[in-house]
Backbone:
């Protein structure tokens, strides 16, 4: 029995398929959806913890990749260095869960950690390298 | 009734000037009307804070003994242009480091000088009778060099495009990281706060206009490269995309790291965030008509940056209110938007400039010559001499 924390990205054309259901049924996995952002007609993201037999987890990842889902290991933590940040907000366009937003009154960047699914899409977008990851 | 720059400066001197930023004037006009606003408000401060590649600094190092006519120069391993006099160079913001690639470059050298950090100067030369030295390696700081002034050939673009990506791979551009299949869209203008969008026909901003540049007082030195005033415009005067530009000059030694910041766009290169503020004198009612412009009145066009050609396919127009809402519609799909320029910092600069004018530290200037309203915008074609 092992545990793995993964970030799954669902392209918009398969967002409506019951993919997580198959993980239980075919691979006998226990899973815990930690965070998810699924909207019809938009790319979906999910932070998921899988528990089960190592081989079956590997097979399930193969299955997921085959359906078009991209799978990556979850990072531990995303940190925003507010001393570097210039509040441009370019990162907010990449943040599917809107953990990163520009406050609509102050126009300052706000990072809501509870919404972050650690997908790391924002990592290489920051022009002043204010976004860092703890692995 | 028309107001002159002299009258406004007299009010600044007497501490009686009324200054609003380009956001505040919107509600002021809504409440009091054009006539009253034109009479009561003297100055409106506009600003922008965004990456502007066409920036750089002229530096004079002073002469070593024995002297050198530098033919190749590196500042912290970033090449500087030296095809001018012996110890004069131009360091461009977008120049990359020869040892660190995109992690360091001209913009970072400029920022390090502003921060007062030591910068390694290395130069080689062929040696002449008057300049016998053939190489030098030393350290400089902002305080050891003679002149250091920014001379930015193209800043403060009057509007800019929105970038998106229709392809099936992530692309890295000067408009930032663009996700596949219209995964996001980025834009780059201060919109209702932006200098040239508040004076769309360059009635007050011209050559010689005193401005806020990177924290110091600088000047508009010329119209910028790629100045394209003939761009299609709305009835309110604002162009629907990249139009006019400014060439700016200012003393680097007086600038502040708060309003000038080196940056790197991943897989694209190095550039510099420039903080610019321009005061617009409220000379008459017509000026108020331009100054009351708000984000929803300013439109720009969405382009597909995955098409690696000069002319990119358009996906229609949007206004800045839609862009700032965080979501726009492209081909019936909702696409998240993000700004490359910082509205927060632009607002801050507009308020700093406002304070400086109120406190009598910043006086307005009439322009010496206007910016052209007609200018050819050429492309580069590959031609033989006979085809010219």
Residues:
């Amino acid at each position: 029995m092992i545990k793995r924390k993964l970030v799954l990205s669902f392209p918009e054309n398969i967002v409506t398929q019951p993919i997580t259901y198959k993980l239980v049924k075919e691979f006998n996995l226990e899973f815990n959806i930690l965070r998810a952002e699924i909207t019809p007609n938009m790319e979906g993201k999910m932070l998921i913890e899988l528990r089960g037999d190592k081989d079956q987890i590997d097979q399930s990842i193969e299955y997921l990749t085959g359906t078009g889902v991209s799978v990556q290991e979850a990072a531990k933590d995303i940190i925003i260095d507010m001393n570097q940040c210039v509040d441009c907000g370019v990162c907010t366009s990449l943040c599917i869960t809107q953990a990163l937003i520009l406050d609509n009154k102050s126009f300052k960047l706000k990072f809501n950690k509870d919404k972050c699914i650690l997908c790391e899409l924002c990592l290489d977008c920051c022009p002043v390298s204010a976004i860092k990851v703890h692995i | 009734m028309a107001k002159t720059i002299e009258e406004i400066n007299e009010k600044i001197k007497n501490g009686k000037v009324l200054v609003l930023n380009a956001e505040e004037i919107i509600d002021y006009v809504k409440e009091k009307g054009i006539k009253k606003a034109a009479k009561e408000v003297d100055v409106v401060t506009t600003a922008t804070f965004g990456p502007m590649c066409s920036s750089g600094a002229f530096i004079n190092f002073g002469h070593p003994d024995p002297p050198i006519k530098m033919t190749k120069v590196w500042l912290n391993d970033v090449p500087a242009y030296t095809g001018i006099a012996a110890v004069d160079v131009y360091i461009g913001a977008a120049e990359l480091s020869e040892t660190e690639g995109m992690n360091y470059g001209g913009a970072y050298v400029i920022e390090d000088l502003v921060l007062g950090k030591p910068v390694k100067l290395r130069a080689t030369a062929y040696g002449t009778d008057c300049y016998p030295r053939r190489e030098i390696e030393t350290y400089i700081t902002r305080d050891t060099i003679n002149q250091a002034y920014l001379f930015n050939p193209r800043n403060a673009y009057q509007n800019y495009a929105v970038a998106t990506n229709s392809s099936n791979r992530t692309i890295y551009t000067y408009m930032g990281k663009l996700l596949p299949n219209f995964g996001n869209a980025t834009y780059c203008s201060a919109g209702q706060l932006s200098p040239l969008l508040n004076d769309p026909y360059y009635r007050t901003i011209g050559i010689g206009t005193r401005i806020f540049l990177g924290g110091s007082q600088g000047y508009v030195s010329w119209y910028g490269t790629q100045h394209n005033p003939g761009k299609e415009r709305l009835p309110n005067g604002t162009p629907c995309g990249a139009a006019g530009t400014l060439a700016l000059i200012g003393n680097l030694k007086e600038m502040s790291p708060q309003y000038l910041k080196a940056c790197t766009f991943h897989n694209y290169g190095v550039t510099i965030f420039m903080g610019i503020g321009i005061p617009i004198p409220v000379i008459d009612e017509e000026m108020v008509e331009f100054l009351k412009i708000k984000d929803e009145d300013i439109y720009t066009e969405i382009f597909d940056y995955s098409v690696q050609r000069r002319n990119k396919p358009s996906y229609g127009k949007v206004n800045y209110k839609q862009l700032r809402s965080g979501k726009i519609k492209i081909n019936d799909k909702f696409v998240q938007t993000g700004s490359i320029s910082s509205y927060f910092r632009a607002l801050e600069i507009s308020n700093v400039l406002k304070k400086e004018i109120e406190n009598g530290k910043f006086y307005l200037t009439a322009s010496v010559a206007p910016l052209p309203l007609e200018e050819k915008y050429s492309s580069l074609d590959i031609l033989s001499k006979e085809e010219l």
User: Anything to note?
Assistant: The first helix of chain B runs from residue 5 to 13. Chain B is about 15% helix and 35% strand.
